[in-house]
Fold this sequence. Notes:
alpha/beta; 136 residues; 5-stranded mixed sheet; globular
Amino acid sequence: MYPKEIYEPMKAELTALGFDDLLTTSDVEDALKKNGTTLVVVNSVCGCAAANARPAVRMSLSNEVKPDNLVTVFAGVDSEATDTARSNMVPFPPSSPSIALFKNGELIHMIERHHIEGRPAEVISDNLISAYNEYC
Length: 136
């Protein structure tokens, strides 16, 4: 667990965009049962990757087409919710940060940490926008 002073501003970057902050297994299960598309961001304190993931997500949401539902879990903070979200991302191994797009509860697009780390936010955003345009 990280000190609140470290992770609360990182959570706020997404909740200010309209993301629901999921804390429990039930929260995640309910979110993934929703009809339509759901973007799940596994947030993280990792500076090298998460520092680009959150801005990329923000940039992607300026696209005309976007997911119906926006949710986030925080790795290393909200373990129950994170574990549940990750269990729905199989066969992809757990990584944080990561970004998953679900449609009617089915995983349809995944961006793992190795797709985020070392890439500029614009490239990650373009990846998300392509997925939104195809699936949303």
